[in-house]
User: What shape does this take?
Amino acid sequence: MKQHLLLPLALMSHYVRPNFKLPQLTWLWILNNLFFVCVAEEALFRGLIQGGLAKLLPPKKIWAFFAIGVAALLFGLAHFKGGPAYMILAAIAGLFYGYAFWKANRIEAPILVHFSLNLIHFLAFSYPALVTP
Assistant: This one.
């Protein structure tokens, strides 16, 4: 799986556009996003849901992929406030995060992948949370 395909997909769907910036209080966004978004979401979706399913299902690769898919689907659904495009992109991202968790067997892996994607998105592309009405 290639996570670097997610941002081009978001660009091609016109969900984001290039927008390089270094806003004030970037450090505050970084701390908030790392701890209250990435750690929290990965603990729930990868640690609890994917990890819990993996323990309940037979230890075969197909069932590991099933657990990744279920967690990714729920991750996408949890982002419903962003609309259908955001839900689809979040579900695709969830596949990458789930794969990282499965391969590394450590929760730090999807947290790092999730945070890296969010940081690149924040600094280099349009970011809906920064749009002022």
